[in-house]
Amino acid sequence: MKMAIKDGQVILVEVSSDKYMQIKSRGLMKWSKQQQALYGPATAELLNFLATLFRLPGPAEELRQQMNNLESSVDAERMDPEPKPLYKFPVKLPLYRHQIRGANMALMVFGLVDPPEEATN
């Protein structure tokens, strides 16, 4: 089996029939008759599932770990009882806690700030 990630898509070719059935049953990838390959969006869910089936190549494994770290950082921010702003927000009035949490999560998801180190460990 060969795997590539191109333009935000995971591409699998030369997939064995048993792996094909497992992958297809999850509904995360679609078969392209023209290219004779499975295609699906490079999401954390798909990469985590594929990691249970076989060992991911280096770049795909790095991307999977980055996505999992981001997800755990966002979850940690969501549950933080006293959030600290990750950026000096351009507003005149002080923000409420839920607004700080939301703004921090958005900054992390859109890649504008790096997640805090204590949340990724």
SSE sequence, one letter per element: EEHEEHHHH
**Beta-strand share of residues:** 5-15%
The computed structural class is alpha+beta
What is the straight-line distance between the termini?
33 Å
Number of helices: 5
Query: What proportion of the residues is helical, as a percent range?
Result: 40-55%
Gyration radius, rounded: 19 Å
Strand order across the biggest sheet?
A: 1-2-4-3
Structural account:
This protein has 121 residues and is an alpha+beta fold. It contains five helices and four strands; from the N terminus they run E-E-H-E-E-H-H-H-H. It has helices at 17-26, 44-53, 58-79, 97-109, 117-120, and strands at residues 2-6, 9-13, 30-32, 37-41. Strands 1-2-4-3 form a four-stranded antiparallel β-sheet, with no helix packed on it. Helix 2 packs across helix 3 (58-79).
Q: What is the strand and helix layout of this fold?
A:
Elements: E1 2-6, E2 9-13, H1 17-26, E3 30-32, E4 37-41, H2 44-53, H3 58-79, H4 97-109, H5 117-120
Helix pairs in contact: 2-3, 3-4
